[in-house]
Amino acid sequence: MDSLKEKFASKALPFSQDVKKFLKEHGDKVISEVTVAQVYGGLKGVPGMVSETSKLDPDEGIRFRGYSIPELRDLLPKAPGGNEPLPEGIFYLMLIGELPTEEDVADVSNNLGRRAIVPLHVFSVLDKLPMQTHPMTQFSIAIMAMRTEGVFAKEYRAGMSKKDYWSATYEDAMNLIARLPRVAAYIYRRTYHDGNHIEPDPKLDWAANFAHMLGYDSDEFKRLMRLYATIHSDHEGGNVSAHTNHLVSSALSDAYLSFSAAMNGLAGPLHGLANQEVVRWILKMREEIGTSSPTKEQIADYVKKTLSEGKVIPGYGHAVLRQTDPRYTAQMEFCKNYIGDKDDLINTVHAIYEVVPPILKSLGKVKNPWPNVDAHSGAILLHYGLKEYDFYTVLFGVSRSLGVMANMIWDRALGLPIERPGSTTLELLKKKVGATELA
Ligand code: CMX
Q1: Contacts for 139 with CB less than 8 Å, ≥ 6 apart
Q2: Would 369 be classed as within a structural domain?
Q3: Is 312 within the bounds of a domain?
Q4: Tens of pLDDT along 394-439?
Q5: Which residues span the domain enclosing 343?
C-alpha cells in the first residue's frame, strides 16, 4: 500500500465510526424544511449530501477543509522558485484533511508520476474522432476509453468484499488524476497543433507537466496552471459536476463511469462551459463594436443588448455565491503580479466587472450579480497564447478531478448507499399545501 493510501486508511476508519455513531444518535433529527419553490428550483439550499472536502459560504466563497483561497495560496507548498500552490497539495488536504508538508506533496507528485502512463488505445480512439468533435466530447470519450484499466470493475467482478471498495476506488481515482493531463494535452495537440504531440517530462510536477505537454513551457504559464488547478479543484458537493459524480458513483459505477458523466455536466454552458462562452462573448463584442478596448459605455450597451436578446451574461451569477467569487479575485491578483495593465482583453474583463453588476442588479431577479470563476480564466489563457477557447472547459475538468475523486474515495470509505431522492407531482404538491382549488 502506498503511503498516501495508508494515511487515508488511518483517517477513514475512525471517521466512518464517528459518522456511524452520529447517525445512530442523531439520525432522526430534522435539519431543514423544503419549500415548493425549492422542489421546482433545483433544490438550491436543501442540504442533501455530505462533502467534507470543501464548503461554500454565499458571502465569503469557498473554503477547502476550512482554509480560504488566500490562506491556501500562502500555506500550501510551492514548487521551487514558484509562488503559486502545487495542486498536489490541495488534493492531499482534501483527501487527508490536513495541510501537507513539502514531503507529503512530493510524495503525491511522485505517486501520480508513477501512474501517468496512458494506454495507447486511448490515443487511437481519439484519433478516430472527427476533428470538429468538441474537446469536452473528446475528453469524456477518452475517460471512458481508459476504463479498460479499471481496478474497481475488475475486482468487483472477481467478488471483492464491500470493505475493499474504497481501496479499489483509490487506485482508479489516482490513476485517473495521473493520466488526465496527458489525455487533455493529447486532445489539445491533435485538435489545434496538427497532432504534433509533446512527451511528458517526468521531472515536472503535475500541473507544470500539463503545461509542458500542452506546449506552454514558460515559468509563468506553469504558475498559472498550478493556481488554475488549485482554485478549480472543488466547490463543495452540490455543483453539477461534483454532484453528478456522486450520484453516478452511488450505483457503484467506477471512477471512469462517474467522472465521464461529471464531465458531461461540466460541459453545459451554465456550468464549466461558461469559461469558453465568456471569451466568445467578449470577442464578439469587440468585433461588433470595432475596437479591442471598448469603453464602459460601449460595454454597458452590449450587455443590455445581450440581455434583450434573452441571453445570460456568461461568467456572472451563481447558484450559491452572493459576492464576487474569490476564485475571480485570485486570478485578478495573478494578473496584477504577472501581467499588469498591458493586455486589452484582461483590461476589458476588469471593465466588465465594473459595468455588469449594477445592470444585473437593476433586473431585480438575478440573485447574484457578481462574477464567478469563469468570468476571468479565459482572458489569462489567451494572454499566454492559448487562444483555442473551445478547449478551456477541459482545463477546468482536469482540475475538477482533484476534488471529485477525493470525494469519491471518501464516499466509498463511508459506504454511502445508492442515491435515490423522492420525486413528486403537481397534483400531490397541491394536495400537500392545500391548494386543490387551483386544480
Ligand atoms: N445573466 C443574465 N441573467 C441571469 C444571470 C446572468 N449572468 N444569472 C442569473 N440570471 C437570471 C436567470 O437566468 C433567471 O432568469 P429567469 O427567472 O428568467 O429564468 C434569474 O436571473 C434568476 O436566476 P438566479 O436564481 O440568480 O440564478 P440560478 O441559481 O438559477 O443560476 C447560474 C445560476 C450560474 C446558472 C446563472 O447565474 C447563469 O446563468 N450565469 C451565467 C452562466 C455562468 O456564468 N455559469 C457559470 C457558473 C459557475 C460554474 O459553474 O462554473
Answers
A1: 183, 184, 187, 263, 394, 397
A2: yes
A3: yes
A4: 999 999 999 999 999 999 999 999 999 999 999 999 999 999 665 5
A5: 274-383
